Amino acid sequence: MNRSHLLSLLSECTGDDIWSIEHCRQVRVPEDWIAECVDAYESGFDRNSNTIYYRERIVNQFEGVRDVDIACMIAQTLGVPVKRLIETSYSRTDLVRKIRETIEED
After folding, report:
1. What is the sign of the dihedral through the CA atoms of 21, 22, 27 and 30?
2. C-beta separation of 15 from 91 below 8 A
3. Using an 8 Å Cβ cutoff, are 85 and 102 in contact?
4. 3-class DSSP state for residue 42?
5. What is the dihedral of CA 54, 55, 57, 60, to 10 degrees?
6. Torsion angle, alpha carbons of 8, 33, 13, 102, to 10
7. More confident residue, 80 or 1
8. pLDDT in tens, 81-103
């Protein structure tokens, strides 16, 4: 994958979203990344941030790929020390922000 496509994917990552497999394929996430990162997620209804929405509707379960995992795969591909960033991040959104900043500094 070329760097510009990786950066385009990273620009879509928020740290809070789960991408459907269909969306991953539409934006050309590598199939091996999808296979490695796909999982089934369940909504938690205690807070809105724990509730999964798909096409603006609440769903109980959703199979997909967390965009934070895609951001980590991008970072690894570009040689960013992801483990260190994970250890120093206080949330998924913070991790994605740190990945972006680290890549921009290079």
Report:
1. positive
2. yes
3. yes
4. strand
5. -20
6. -80
7. 80
8. 999 999 999 999 999 999 999 99
